[in-house]
Amino acid sequence: MGAFLDKPKMEKHNAHGEGNGLRFGLSSMQGWRVEMEDAHTAVIGLPHGLERWSFFAVYDGHAGSQVARYCCEHLLEHITSNPDFGGGGGGGDGGTDEDPSVESVKSGIRTGFLQIDDHMRQISEKKHGGADRSGSTAVGVMISPRHVYFINCGDSRGLLSRGGAVHFFTQDHKPSNPLEKERIQNAGGSVMIQRVNGSLAVSRALGDFDYKCVHGKGPTEQLVSPEPEVYAIERSDTEDEFIVLACDGIWDVMANEELCDFVRSRLEVTDDLERVCNEIVDTCLYKGSRDNMSVVLVCFGGAPKVSPDAVKREAELDKYLESRVEEILKKHGEEGVPDLVHVMRMLASESIPNLPPGGELARFSYIPNKSDKSITTD
Fold first, then answer.
1. Lowest pLDDT segment from 38-42, 127-131, 180-184
2. Dihedral pair phi/psi, residue 299, rounded to 5°
3. Rounded Cα–Cα distance for residues 358 and 161 (Å)
4. pLDDT tens column, 338-359
5. What is the pLDDT of residue 322?
6. What segments bear the compositional bias annotation Gly residues (predicted)?
């Protein structure tokens, strides 16, 4: 945790799909970190009779990737198969004999988190003698025909854009939050430099069993709690636009409104959700993120559509920036090839119209290399 590479690994893992009136795309990139510790889940059509339900999640691992990887493969089953979740009839969530009610879903999600955490502890003790010290945050959404259930444990974040604005976002679980700090202190711990016992930067997580061994305290009363916060939001067929789930490597450099504005502007240019997610990740890398980066974008029917005018403006902007890069390269020809940072700084000093909101010039960080492959990225 905390080790960095000499150069960022910019290769990306992508996926996309559609169903149940939804479209999704995702992107993940190792970036500057020595190891890729993020993981994700994207499932349209859930088991146990919930074919019209969908589930998406991002897991941000730390001190190893074991917990994040296990959760991406098994958390959903722990949630939907436990008795607290209720039955599944493939319909809505209004509390009929077959369909789980809102409260049953929320209870089942909570139970699923506690179950998988206990299960992973047992695996760690049996296979590794308790030596697995990895942990992971988790942020996700379970989407039913009537509701969106936001699920959060840690400092990854999810948000809903509705009617052209941020309608909802999850709250980060930080040790300095008053309620989190109270629990930590009641368990005999302390909050120093905004970390649990001066070490861990999140107050809720799956795994991290070194922080869950206070005798006489239940699983949700430990220094680090595996309990998620679950929020149920009624869907709006006419106004719901999209959901973004991302790890803190994204949110560290882009505020909620910035990212929503950026996504909205990109959806007016392309309907390729993988491309939009890749542009989010690249933009955050240029903005200075040093962490692993993962983002899942889920679009409803009300998401912005491609606009011919926006596509035209984008093409004109691309052409203008390419010409400016060529001018910069010619000007510096006698001094040697400038690096990418120098080129981008020169462009940033200019007043350039029609840059996308949120990303601004960072969105176009690929253009210098496109114009001249000899530009260095050191």
1. 127-131
2. -110, 135
3. 15
4. 666 677 777 777 878 778 888 7
5. 85
6. 85-94
d(CA 98, CA 49): 9
Hey, what amino acid is at 208? D
Give residue-wise pLDDT tens across range 52-64. Answer: 999 999 999 999 9
* Spatial separation of the C-alpha atoms in residues 200 and 197, rounded to whole Å: 7
Which pLDDT band holds residue 88 (cuts at 50, 70, 90)?
very low
Closest CA to 140 of 76, 191, 222: 76
| pLDDT score of 233 more than 60 | yes
Query: Distance between CA 23 and CA 301 in Å, rounded?
Result: 9
Q: Give CA separation, 243 vs 22, 238, 285, in Å.
A: 10, 15, 21
Q: Torsion over CA of 168, 173, 178 and 179, rounded to 10 degrees?
A: 90
Give residue-wise pLDDT tens across range 256-279. 999 999 999 999 999 999 999 999
Helix/strand/coil (H, E, C) string of the chain?
CCCEEEEEEEEEEEEEEEECCEEEEEEEEEEEECCCCEEEEEEEEECCCEEEEEEEEEEEEECCCHHHHHHHHHHHHHHHHCHHHCCCCCCCCCCCCCCCCHHHHHHHHHHHHHHHHHHHHHHHHHHHCCCCCCEEEEEEEEECCCEEEEEEECCCEEEEEECCEEEEECCCCCCCCHHHHHHHHHCCCCEECCEECCCECCCECEECHHHCCCCCCCHHHCCCECCCEEEEEECCCCCEEEEEEECHHHHCCCCHHHHHHHHHHHHCCCCCHHHHHHHHHHHHHHCCCCCCEEEEEEECCCCCCCCHHHHHHHHHHHHHHHHHHHHHHHHCHHHCCCEHHHHHHHHHCCCCCCCCCCCHHHHHCCHHHHHCCCCECC
* Ramachandran angles phi, psi of 147, nearest 5°: -135, 160
CA distances from 129 to 13, 121, 125 (A): 33, 10, 4
User: Which of the pair, 11 or 345, is modelled with greater confidence?
Assistant: 11
Name the phi and psi angles at 50, rounded to 5: -110, 50
Euclidean distance between CA atoms 181 and 186, whole angstroms: 8
